[in-house]
Amino acid sequence: KMQGVAASVSDTLGNIRPWLHKVTTQSKMTDSKYFTTTRKGEIFELKAELNSDRKDKRKEAVKKVIASMTVGKDVSTLFPDVVNCMQADNLELKKLVYLYLMNYAKTQPDKAIMAVNTFVRDCEDPNPLIRALAVRTIGCIRVDEITAYLCDPLRKCLKDEDPYVRKTAAVCVAKLHDIDPLLVEEQGFLDMLKDLLADSNPMVVANAVAAMTEIGESAQTEAAARMLTWSGHLVNKLLTALNECTEWGQVFILDAVANYTPSEENEAQSMIERVCPRLAHANAAVVLSAVKVIMKLLELLTPGSDFVQSTVKKLSAPLVTLLSSEHEIQYVALRNINLIVQKRPEILKHELKVFFVKYNDPIYVKLEKLDILIRLTSAANIANVLAELKEYATEVDVDFVRKAVRAIGRCAIKVESAAERCVSTLLDLIQTKVNYVVQEAIVVIKDIFRKYPNKYESVIGTLCENLDTLDEPEARASMIWIIGEYAERIDNADELLESFLDGFADEQTSVQLQLLTAVVKLFLKRPTDTQELVQRVLSLATQEADNPDLRDRGYIYWRLLSTDPAAAKQVVLAEKPLISEETDLLEPSLLGELVCHIGSLASVYHRPPSAFVDGRVAAQRKGLPSRAPTLAEATGAADAGAEVVPTDNAQNAKPAVSVIPTQDSLIGDLLDIDMSGGGGGSGITQQSAAPAVPSQSNAMDLLGDGLDSLLGLGGPAPQQPPQQQPAVGGGSGVDALADIFGGLSATPSAQAGFTPQLESWLPAQRGKGMQIDGRFLRRGAQLQMELQVRNNAMQQLSGFAIQFNKNSFGLAPAQPLSLNPLAPMQTATTLLPLHTKGQVQKMEPLLNLQVAVKNNIDVFYFSCLVPIHVLFTEEGGMDKRVFLSTWKDIPADSESQTSLGSYSHSPDSVSNLLQSCNVFTIARRSVDGIEMLYQSMKLCNGILVLAELKISGGAFTLSLKSRHAEVYSGVQESYLKILKSSN
Amino acid sequence: MIGGLFVYNHKGEVLISRVYRDDIGRNAVDAFRVNVIHARQQVRSPVTNIAHTSFFHIKRSNIWICAAAKKNVNAALVFQFLYKMVEVMGNYFGKINEDNIKNNFVLIYELLDEIMDYGYPQNTDTGILKTYITQQGIKSQTKEETTKITNQVTGQIAWRREGIKYRRNELFLDVIESVNLLMSPQGQVLSAHVSGRVQMKSFLSGMPECKFGINDKIVVDSKRQEPGATSGGGNLGGGGKAGHIAIDDCQFHQCVKLSKFDTEHAISFIPPDGEFELMRYRTTKDISLPFRVIPLVREIGRTKMEVKVVVKSNFKPSLLAQKVEVRIPTPLNTSGVQVICMKGKARYKASDNAIVWKIKRMGGMKEWQLSAEIDMLSATDKAKKWTRPPISMNFEVPFAPSGFKVRYLKVFESKLNYSDHDVIKWVRYIGKSGLYETRC
Predict the structure, then answer these.
(1) Per 3-state DSSP, what percentage of chain B is helix, strand, and coil (rounded to 5)?
(2) Rounded (5°) CA angle B365-B367-B372
(3) Domain end marker among A845, A866, A887
(4) Of A4-13, A354-363, A487-496, A808-817, minimum mean pLDDT range
């Protein structure tokens, strides 16, 4: 009879607890003592205990060894003593010894051999648990000598009568394959493994599947790869076994089945039917793997069919359920849902509300939910979404708030009817004056302007009020773009832009480029009073900037303005194509690949495995299968809406989806459009007889001409621009152009004779994603450190600062490091001027410099060697007589002579080359075809170094004399570098 | 697959380190400590990639449990395994804390050796593990004994051993639901769902086949078509209402035959011995929300705020809710609070930045009110950033807010001489608060 009334079951653990108590008390306060810190002589004591006569003492000792191993102490010296305990009949002790062996066998291969006999014997033990333990462990000992002994026992174990041994042996084949793939093939283990797929025991099957999948991914030979492919027959059998497997076994099987592509629609359909029940499994991994199989198979079915629709319906509830699991699983699920809604938006289109952010969600869940929320936004639900986003924009976490603000902008672009509400929401947010909210809002408003030109410009006034608070490059660039674009409506546009111009050199390139374009736009719109401004920006861009893009763009604008302002207008003020609504979509073929990896790390990172996995495995790329079009579709155009997405040229097949770059690259995008949009840029190539390098002096004239024609539009054709340095030859346009570029590229190289290569200072692995390459330069008496910082991390880097440790020459930064925040995968180069008035401490090696670089993540330390020649001052020259007497004064025994090798330099070129590095040639002598150069240099701390460079038939020999012999090696090093650099 | 498992204490000291694969080097254990545990920033993701190695972590109290992998592993599987590992350890020695882990490290290594091989999870069922991992040392078992063990570990019914005998066959069913709600200040339900689970404790002899019936629409509808199938139902849940609920989705324990559920909508299984979670389900329609919170916040100037909160209970007057607690967040710069409430006890907890209102018992269809005056220090920049977190509620009610009902649970054991009628069955319904929030 059923007892319907609710009854209290007070102690839910009831029957387990007393037992549990036994286990814990028995070991209570015994084992944790092993974690206490080491004393001196402990190893020695352990050794004695391990060799004790008493069993219990030996066991205690092994426990201590394992505890030490866990906390990272090196107990490898105890190897022989521990191995001696292996023969014990106590299973617990045996397991501990095996654990030790797995850890240290590799370091002591010769001694590991001692264990082989015991292993082989254990593989024959009557107790299946011991047989399995032996075969499990032996596969983890990666010592060649032992591997050789493994084959026979493994073969026996694969055919063992006990399923527990067989399931362990199956995994062992994968272990052996990792050590020696060819051995596995030679010994026929692959066949045996394949036989296990038909085993009567479900766990043996599951492990065999796991092993086969892994081996298949790294198969060495064609034959092996072929043998390990999944046939329809096999897949069918596996799906039958699915029911009986453990949850983990189900995952192995589903992941394996996902690699199989059926040839017919019917087969795909029946596979889906058999996989669908897994969607109700309690284990999220089973659910996601089932989703993966189904998503892949759906590609093979007739789109829009009833079966497809009902399958798609079945997918939504299990996905939503994943969101009530633990946070980490929620995160994995959300990352996958993000892919799924891009691939098949219909699955979750009615589930918007489950993605509303909860106050207590961890930040990683919040950010992902927000992303999906936007993807699901449509005109039907925009009101709900917007209300939520407004709520989120007032939260505490900065990243989340920024993303919410950005999301509001995306809503505006996606749903036109809501644009106005979005803009007013953004304005409300700007009124909060919270700095990062304002900046983010300005960035998105720029996009809204682009999507709906001439609609919301009334808000510009509000935006301009916040100009001073913008300190992020993206926000600054966006604001500048807005000012440039709407210059004619902003009365004080010139003042605003001018205010940015004052700190031009400190801006990031993206901002500089934007500023350049904006000022030119302003000039074209209001030529009368902005002439001075445009000249200033052009000269800043062309003469003071290091960045070649900036310089080139500056020249192009300059040329355009000076030769054909009408064309300039057409180019710069060209109509821009509208931006489309979907942003941040993954590129279709990548999306297809990631869908094949649902549930895996690739789906969490949204990157293909090759991006984060080493080795060959990564090289195999997966892709969604494509459906063979049916006859009706192939011939008739009736089914035009069919979405067939072949993997190889997915983009062609699905023209509707255009991938829009993410926010980070949008600015770049805008600029590109500015340049290429008009199509009227005839002035660039044809009229290229213009001066190669305009200089300040004639800039006025150039613009003057341009200005005339601009003001008198439609008037007489522009005069031939004055030529200050006519292009040589002046023949065909092409020649002239080549000349211009030649001239440009020659400019920087003329400044310094020798520029060293960038050195890797801080690899990204050590810098948590920040990678620093750099070199030391000396330009015009100024010592500089050039830093090229690259952000390989997945988040923005900012807040950079640099510090030097005390060093031999007192090098120290002359100003703080100026580096704007770096977006992921962005690189920035900065020049840091150095002085030599810092604290001095002699380093070993002498030129070693220890540097600390800080960013928002951490402080990183690296050391680099300063090439000594950058420390040579401009005052290194001296009178011949002084040279001679100094040379004589320094005792002969402190002279050092080295051979520098052979070079093709002439004495003159060497002398010039070295001169550029402040090595001054004082005198020169030529005896019997042997050239002698006498040179001097002076270090920044006053140390004089004298040199005699002997060139005999191309072989260079350097003799150095100085009162400070420590510097010799550095000087020799630098000579070598300089000579090699231009040889 | 998984390359290594590490367990750290809150300081980042290694308590357990088990490397399964050669691709995980010795420095991996340090890499996670340095980059995640000792990182200055808040954890931004449970998955971290450091130098081409991916680290998955979960935390239990102040213990970090971390899996490392080099390959493109199944991330969902890794986390599920970590949860399972915690569960197994908990079943063996209770709470996961530093002392327990240190005291049982040998046991843990033995378990880790058993539940995972070369990074592939193996049998993780505690019931089965306990038959052969005992820390007593397996002395000399007979061949039959070991064969029994190995068959169970690898077998089709890996969750139950043979030969279980009870003098009294008994089973307990707990239907435990947590109600989640997000409500706008105006009383509009922004989102609401119930996630429920059926917890079963069985003390049944032999290998009993169980059939479980619930009042889910689909299950009931499909049952109607089979004549006579409804005969056993109806009387167990105590409520005779014909109400059927719409379950959005449900998930079952390993033991439930999923294919049978998919085709026949029948929940049939051979239960594990002892306690386990039979099913989990989720509903979103027709939830009877046990409570409603009506907030009224008035800011009077910059240094004063008035809060009025009304709590309404919305269920049968004969039922009693327990452990009712309302948390009303206060600004960070609160200097003083005066609270008055009709029932229960309300206190301002400065450490939580909240007024906590506790009501031990509350009957159905009641309406109680709290009002408070909050004084604040004059606004600083920080105060501006206070964002009015939602008011949250905790409670326990003796019914299932989703309307979920157990219709029957029949036990069949053909080999032994007991029938369904001899089994004593107990059912209990508990409704708890999940995230039950009202924005203000």
Answers:
(1) 20, 40, 40
(2) 160
(3) A866
(4) A4-13
- Assess if residue A242 is contained within a domain: no
d(CA B377, CA B399): 44
**CA-based nearest residue to A579, from A403, A819, A414:** A414
Residue A208: is its pLDDT beyond 70? yes
Written as six digits, the tokens of B68 are: 């490392």
Task: Give the residue from chain A lying closest to B12, CA to CA.
Answer: A71
Domain containing residue A518: 472-573
Among A521, A543, A573, the domain boundary falls at: A573
Same-domain pairing of A875 and A976? yes
Q: Give how far the C-alpha of residue A842 lies from the chain's centroid of Cα atoms, to the nearest Å.
A: 38
Quick check: A396 and B79 CB within 8 A? Answer: no
Residues 6+ apart with CB under 8 A from A495: none
- Do A894 and A812 belong to one domain? no
List, for residues A14-70, the tens digit of each pLDDT value: 343 444 343 444 444 457 777 765 566 778 888 888 888 888 888 888 988 988 888
Instruction: Classify domain B170-288+413-423 at the CATH topology level.
Output: Immunoglobulin-like (2.60.40)
Contacts of A280 in chain B (CB under 8 A): 249-252, 258, 261-262
User: Looking at this predicted complex, what is its ipTM?
Assistant: 0.77
What is the spatial distance between Cα A618 and Cα B23, in angstroms, rounded to a whole number? Answer: 15
Residues 21-50 of B with CB under 8 A from A: 21-22, 29, 35, 39-47, 49-50
Beta-carbon separation of B120 and A246 below 8 A: no
**φ, ψ dihedrals at A911, nearest 5°:** -60, -45
Q: Please report how the helices A509-525 and A548-563 are oriented relative to each other, as an axis angle in degrees rounded to 10.
A: 10
Q: Please, is A854 exposed, middle or buried when counting C-beta atoms within 10 Å of its C-beta (0-12, 13-18, 19+)?
A: middle
Q: Are both A926 and A889 inside the same structural domain? A: yes
What is the pairing mode between strands A782-791 and A827-835?
antiparallel
Closest CA to B21 of A160, A67, A331, A174: A174
Exposed/middle/buried for residue A182 (C-beta within 10 Å: 0-12, 13-18, 19+)? exposed
Chain B residues in contact with A35 (beta carbon < 8 A): 15, 102, 105
- B131 lies within 8 A of chain A by CB: no
Task: Give whole-number Cα distances, A57 to A41, A50, A69, A85, in Å.
Answer: 18, 7, 18, 11
**Res. B436: pLDDT tops 90:** yes
Sheet with A848-854, strands from edge to edge, namely: A801-804, A848-854, A859-865
- The CA radius of gyration of chain A, in Å to the nearest whole number, is 37
Q: Which residue of A has its CA nearest to B156?
A: A244
Residue in chain B nearest A391 by alpha carbon: B387
The pTM of the full predicted model, rounded to 2 decimals, is 0.68
Contact B76 A326 (CB under 8 A): no
CB atoms A601 and B390 under 8 Å: no
pLDDT value at A904 more than 70: yes
The third-level CATH classification (topology) of the domain covering B291-397 is: Immunoglobulin-like (2.60.40)
**Domain ranges in chain B with CATH number 2.60.40.1170:** 170-288+413-423, 291-397
Considering CB atoms only, which of B80, B100, B279 is closest to A285? B80
CATH number at A884 reads 3.30.310.10
Amino acid at A107: T
- Select from B69, B94, B258 the Cβ nearest to the Cβ of A277: B258
The average confidence (pLDDT) of chain A is 80
Q: Helices in B225-272 by DSSP H: which ranges? A: 258-264
CB A82 within 8 A of CB A100: yes
Please check whether residue B278 is in contact with residue B199, taking contact to mean a CB–CB distance below 8 angstroms: yes
Minimal C-alpha gap between A40 and chain B (Å): 21
